[in-house]
């Protein structure tokens, strides 16, 4: 009996191997931007993680459906006798690309590296007190208090080979701010399904399938080689897909969806993205620089904010600017996130007459003028959305000057609090409201509220946000989340617009689901 | 009155006008340029709507094809609408105004600068000449587009954010103007050096006319025809440069688009079937730049008869 | 003669120093280098340490001299964006731009000369008129639009040529070349046409004008009178005399081509220094911006110098007089 199962298993494995060999193919992949570094802990940024996910692996990651799935860990649970400790069982028989075996030492080493001062991932591990090796394949994470949602934070924390990093002088994450390059920022040694062959930043990165990957038989693994080319210009990128020079692009402009899906041999796969787009206003200061009202801040008046929220015609933005590729919302939270409900999401009526009346009540019957800062290379049609908003706010007398800039110049305005009215998009990698509150609602302090450009500060809410971190009773925790949302919605500190929709364009023979975080894992891709 | 008529009749009888009449291409170009300039000047009266007033736009009108009613609003537009629901015809007329204003002002700036420096260098000679011509050399070291991007980048860095949009057009004019003065200066300097040795200038100097007067009254008229030729060609260059800078994202803002900005927006819709958003502004720009270039060509050939 | 050469070299040197001054000013005063490098969480002590390390407290002239010294040694600092040495970035990307510029220049000179000769000889013919007029269309459309239209027609609709990038490249030492592979050569066609079109028009018009000028001169009349066949007159005599200004102008235009590559490289995602520069502008990557400026400045000054010296060699009349240069 035993021998039969073994034989069957071998047979199936062989069949899988043969089938995957038969379909082994090169995938030419393009998107607008490139990864910023190969060091897995030096940048907390989407495209950088995307490349890293092919080469390195975290303990657990979100699969193509966005569900948490085991990767280098096979199981995990909080200890019964100590809720402050999470125990991870590691996968056995995993080797790095250079042949070294992955053990608990590498995991402990990698997480300690990710908590060093030059790491960009350290914020995700602020609740972690210590990481301990129990045995070669068991690791304990001790947190400062019970953290029921710790695993949500670990999906982009990659494991490196400790010996390799030490030997090559890469024990610290690359210090990007100090303009440093390290061995690990230009070379890789992960456990992932793909190995780095060559890379020229901003031009071309070539990966090939890892012949010793642990997941053989578990994943399709039909891609034998990946050629990744960043193409900034949207028209050029679409042209490359239309002319068959690339097989897969991650960002089809909405206006070209019909053209791509209409072309024989190509298709578009669409799914909701875990990212919400909204405007923020400076509600906290008593006077602002960028308006024409002296001695007052019109945004500080809740009636003005409510009027603005009513003046924005989200449906028109969806229909015309986004060509139906967006879902309008009234809350700065995508539906994937714990805390979301339909009531929060329901969009208010677009009512210019009432909005005008409210402006009048607030004492702005003649309106006012203000500058809107907007990125022009970050979100889908970001600048066009801003332009549309300029027109809509114009209808209630607010004269908006649009200042659209590349993201590299736009984001510092928010972080340095030098804008009073801005566009921002927010993805929620932990799929939990706390991530939104901690960055966007909490008063700006040393390690919280860093993206809260509204100057909103509500000590009562701050206390609740912090309390979420150690609340183990999930029902109670969800109650607090609902409480906080009630206040955020009542104060209207943001003007939510919509949740983005992802459109991946690919050849007909490519079978690939859209990942809600815009993170393709190519080991799942199949050809037919 | 008589004198004027005399001049006008002399003009009508001149070789210049004869040539002009005989060249149909030149005639057509001239008509196109004049029409476009008139449209730009009279934009407020001619254009069906004011595309620079965002509050008057209805986003639902967006992407309406030419002469077809919009699916939501039922409105019809001769040239269709762009992605923001702007009437494209009005946007082109107003954009023409921005482009022509930037182009003409930049050329005037370049011309005033170039002619003054060229006169000065040619007339004075010596170290002033050397200095000006070396600066011209350095200037030539950097092509105009690069200078414009740099000036724009520097201005962006130095200006307070709320002034940037308002000053975007001025920065554009200065950037293009400053990068195109050298050909004027070179030509004027060359002619001045020849003219100042001629007898009538020597005579004027003898009767005690100041150098300023000599330069303005006696030398300047002699350099006018080459300057006119260069100015025409530079105008076409400036209009194209404005469009290019807008493409690179350092030009006119999308809320008050120039022809270049309209083309930049339109090229996003080249593959998607909304051809009119790219086609109409491009054709307008082409008609304008081509006509100006053709006029420049003809001027050069006419004023320099050896090349005929 | 030697004196003139020495004076020209000195002038070139002064020009280069001035270019370096502009680059230095941008590097030092546009944006705060300390702020860019440290980010906002930095402490006052961090700032002070960095200011000392970068020598930002030294007198400005000292900083300038250090900047020039570093530049001469090929040290342009570290890119704020990729954290790599700027010199390495440039070295990696320069071959792409130079190869594109070379092919564009070749295209512009070859086709420009041919069409120039044709339009001069048959200057009253219909075809010549058509060529002259349609050449104006080329200069009356912005480069980026021509590039996008070429991509649309030849890559998307016809599918004949690639729409982006360099195709396969072969690494020879530090130089990566696209000349040795079929895809590399195919990838060059559209960008080279886009970039060279404007220069082609200029050269065509210059050749035509020079030819017309020369055909009117006495020695050509004599040649005709002697009964030389027309072809001999045109190509043996006229063209030979046309080539000197054409070559010098073409030389000068090579510099312009490198600078205009900014636009072409943006449209075609060509991985050269132009694309690097425009990205640097968007990312406010000051060291890359100032290094690019210095690079382009140097290329232009060197080309100017060579052209001037060539004049001396070609035209002996200039040896004892003023240097005069024809520009378009």
Provide a short characterization of the protein structure.
Chain A is an alpha+beta fold. Chain A has 16 helices and 19 strands.
Describe this structure in words.
The complex is a heterotrimer of chains A (528), B (308) and C (328). Chain A is an alpha+beta fold. Chain A has 2 domains: 208 residues, D-Maltodextrin-Binding Protein, domain 2 (3-Layer(aba) Sandwich); 230 residues, Dipeptide-binding Protein, Domain 3 (Dipeptide-binding Protein, domain 3, Roll). In chain A, 30% of the residues lie in helices and 23% in strands. Chain A has 16 helices and 19 strands. In chain A, the strands form 5 sheets. In chain A, strands 1, 8, 9, 10, 11, 12, 13, 16 and 17 form a 9-stranded mixed β-sheet that branches. A 4-stranded antiparallel β-sheet of chain A has the order 4-5-7-6, with helices on one face. A two-stranded antiparallel ribbon of chain A has the order 2-3. In chain A, helix 8 packs antiparallel against helix 11 and helix 14 packs antiparallel against helix 15. Chain A is globular and about 70 Å long. The two termini of chain A are 35 Å apart. Chain B has a single domain, classed as MetI-like fold, CATH 1.10.3720.10. Chain B is built from 13 helices and no strands. Chain B is globular. The model of chain B has no long low-confidence stretch (mean pLDDT 82). The two termini of chain C are 26 Å apart. Chain C has 328 residues and is mainly alpha-helical. Chain C folds into 2 domains: 71 residues, no CATH class; 234 residues, MetI-like (MetI-like fold). Helix content of chain C is 75%, strand content 2%. Chain C has a two-stranded antiparallel sheet with strand order 1-2. Chain C contains 12 helices and 2 strands; from the N terminus they run αααααααββααααα. The chains are: A alpha+beta (528), B mainly alpha (308), C mainly alpha (328). Chains in contact: A-B, A-C, B-C. At the B-C interface, helix 6, helix 7, helix 11, helix 12 and helix 13 of B face helix 1, helix 6, helix 7, helix 8 and helix 10 of C.
């Amino acid at each position: 009996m035993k021998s039969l199962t073994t034989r069957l298993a071998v047979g199936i494995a062989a069949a899988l191997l043969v089938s995957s060999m038969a379909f082994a193919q090169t995938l030419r992949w393009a998107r607008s931007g490139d990864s910023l570094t190969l060091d897995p802990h030096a940048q907390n940024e989407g495209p950088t993680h995307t490349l890293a996910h092919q080469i390195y692996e975290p303990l657990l990651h979100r699969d193509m459906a966005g569900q948490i799935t085991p990767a280098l860990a096979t199981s995990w649970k909080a200890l019964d006798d100590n809720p402050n400790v999470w125990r991870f069982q590691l996968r056995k028989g995993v080797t790095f690309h250079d042949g070294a075996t992955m053990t608990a030492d590498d995991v402990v080493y990698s997480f300690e590296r990710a908590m060093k001062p030059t790491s960009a991932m350290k914020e995700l591990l602020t609740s972690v007190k210590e990481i301990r090796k129990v045995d070669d394949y068991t690791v304990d994470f001790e947190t400062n208090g019970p953290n029921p949602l710790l695993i949500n934070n670990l999906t982009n924390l990659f494991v490196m080979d400790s010996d390799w990093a030490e030997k090559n002088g890469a024990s610290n994450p690359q210090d990007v701010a100090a303009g440093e390059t390290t061995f690990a920022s230009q070379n890789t040694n992960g456990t992932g399904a793909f190995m780095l062959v060559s890379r020229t930043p901003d031009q071309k990165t070539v990966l090939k399938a890892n012949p010793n990957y642990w997941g053989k038989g578990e994943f399709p693994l039909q891609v034998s080689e990946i050629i990744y080319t960043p193409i900034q210009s949207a028209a050029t990128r679409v042209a490359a897909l239309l002319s068959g020079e690339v097989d897969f692009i991650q960002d089809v402009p909405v206006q070209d969806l019909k053209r791509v899906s209409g072309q024989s041999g190509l298709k578009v796969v669409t799914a909701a993205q875990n990212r919400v787009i909204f405007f923020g206003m400076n509600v906290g200061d008593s006077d602002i620089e960028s308006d024409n009202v002296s001695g007052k801040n019109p945004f500080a008046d809740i009636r003005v904010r409510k009027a603005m929220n009513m003046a924005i015609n989200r449906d028109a933005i969806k229909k015309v600017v986004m060509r139906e590729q967006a879902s309008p919302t009234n809350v700065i939270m995508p539906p994937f996130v714990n805390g979301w409900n339909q009531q929060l999401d329901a969009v208010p009526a677009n009512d210019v007459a009432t909005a005008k009346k409210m402006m009048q009540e607030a004492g702005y019957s003649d309106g006012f003028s203000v500058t809107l800062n907007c990125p022009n290379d970050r979100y889908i049609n970001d600048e066009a959305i801003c332009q549309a908003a300029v027109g809509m706010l114009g209808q209630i007398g607010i004269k908006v000057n649009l200042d659209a800039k590349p993201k590299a110049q736009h984001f510092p305005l928010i972080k340095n609090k030098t804008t009073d009215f801005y566009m921002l998009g927010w993805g929620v990698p932990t799929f939990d409201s706390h991530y939104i509150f901690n960055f966007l609602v909490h008063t700006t302090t040393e390690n919280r509220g860093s993206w809260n450009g509204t100057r909103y500060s509500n000590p009562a809410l701050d206390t609740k946000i912090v309390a979420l971190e150690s609340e183990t009773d999930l029902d109670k925790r969800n109650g607090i989340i609902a409480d906080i949302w009630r206040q955020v919605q009542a104060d209207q500190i943001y003007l939510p617009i919509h949740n983005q929709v992802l459109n991946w364009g690919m050849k007909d023979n490519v079978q690939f689901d859209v990942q809600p975080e815009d993170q393709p894992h190519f080991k799942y891709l199949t050809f037919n | 009155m008589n004198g004027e008529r005399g001049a006008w009749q002399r003009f009508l009888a001149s070789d210049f006008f004869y040539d002009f009449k005989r060249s149909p291409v030149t005639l057509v170009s001239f008509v196109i340029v004049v029409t476009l300039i008139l449209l730009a000047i009279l934009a407020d009266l001619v254009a069906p709507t004011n595309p620079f007033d965002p509050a008057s736009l209805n986003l639902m009108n967006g992407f309406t094809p030419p002469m077809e009613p919009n699916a939501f609003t039922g409105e019809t537009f001769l040239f269709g609408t762009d992605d923001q629901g702007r009437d494209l015809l009005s946007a082109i007329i107003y954009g023409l105004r921005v482009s022509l204003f930037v182009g003409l002002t930049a050329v005037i700036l370049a011309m005033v600068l170039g002619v003054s420096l060229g006169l000065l260098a040619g007339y004075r000679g010596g170290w002033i000449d050397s200095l000006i011509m070396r600066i011209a050399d350095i200037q030539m070291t950097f092509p105009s587009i690069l200078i414009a991007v740099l000036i724009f980048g520097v201005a962006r860095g130095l200006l307070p954010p709320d002034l940037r949009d308002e000053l975007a057009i001025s920065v554009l004019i200065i950037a293009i103007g400053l990068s195109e003065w050298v050909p004027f200066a070179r030509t004027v300097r060359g002619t001045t050096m020849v003219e100042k040795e001629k007898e009538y200038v020597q005579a004027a100097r003898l009767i005690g006319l100041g150098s300023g007067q000599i330069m303005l009254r006696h030398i300047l008229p002699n350099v006018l025809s080459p300057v006119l030729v260069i100015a025409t060609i530079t105008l076409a260059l400036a209009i194209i440069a404005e469009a290019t800078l807008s493409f690179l994202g350092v030009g006119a803002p999308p809320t008050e688009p120039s022809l270049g900005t309209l083309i930049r927006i339109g090229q996003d819709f080249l593959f998607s079937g909304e051809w009119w958003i790219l086609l109409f502004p491009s054709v307008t720009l082409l008609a304008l730049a081509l006509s100006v270039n053709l006029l420049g060509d003809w001027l050069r050939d006419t004023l320099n008869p050896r090349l005929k | 003669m030697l004196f003139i050469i020495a004076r020209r070299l000195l002038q070139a040197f002064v020009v280069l120093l001035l270019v370096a001054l502009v680059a230095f000013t941008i590097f030092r005063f546009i944006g705060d280098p300390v702020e860019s490098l440290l980010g906002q969480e930095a402490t006052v002590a961090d700032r002070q340490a960095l200011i000392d390390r970068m020598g930002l407290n030294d007198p400005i002239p000292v900083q300038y001299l250090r900047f020039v010294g570093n530049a001469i040694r090929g040290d342009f600092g570290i890119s704020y964006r990729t954290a790599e040495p700027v010199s390495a970035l440039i070295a990696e990307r320069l071959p792409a731009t130079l190869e594109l510029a070379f092919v564009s220049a070749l295209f512009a000179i070859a086709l420009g000369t041919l069409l120039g000769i044709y339009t001069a000889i048959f200057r009253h013919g219909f075809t010549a008129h058509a060529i002259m007029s349609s050449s104006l269309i080329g200069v009356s459309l912005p480069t980026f639009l021509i590039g996008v239209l070429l991509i649309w027609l030849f890559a998307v609709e016809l599918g004949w040529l690639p729409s982006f990038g360099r195709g396969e490249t072969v690494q020879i030492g530090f130089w990566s070349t696209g000349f040795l592979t079929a895809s590399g050569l195919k990838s060059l066609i559209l960008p080279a046409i886009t970039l060279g079109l404007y220069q082609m028009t200029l050269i065509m018009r210059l050749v035509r004008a020079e030819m017309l000028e020369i055909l009117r001169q006495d020695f050509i009349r004599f040649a005709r009178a002697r009964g030389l066949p027309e072809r001999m007159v045109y190509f043996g005599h006229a063209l030979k005399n046309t080539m000197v200004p054409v070559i010098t102008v073409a030389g000068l235009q090579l510099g312009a081509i490198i600078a205009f590559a900014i636009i072409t490289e943006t449209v075609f995602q060509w991985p050269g220094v132009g694309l690097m520069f425009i990205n640097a502008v968007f990312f406010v990557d000051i060291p890359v911006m100032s290094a690019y400026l210095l690079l382009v400045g140097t290329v232009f000054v060197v080309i100017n110098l060579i052209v001037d010296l060539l004049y001396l060699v070609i035209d002996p009349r200039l040896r004892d007089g003023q240097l005069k240069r024809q520009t378009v």
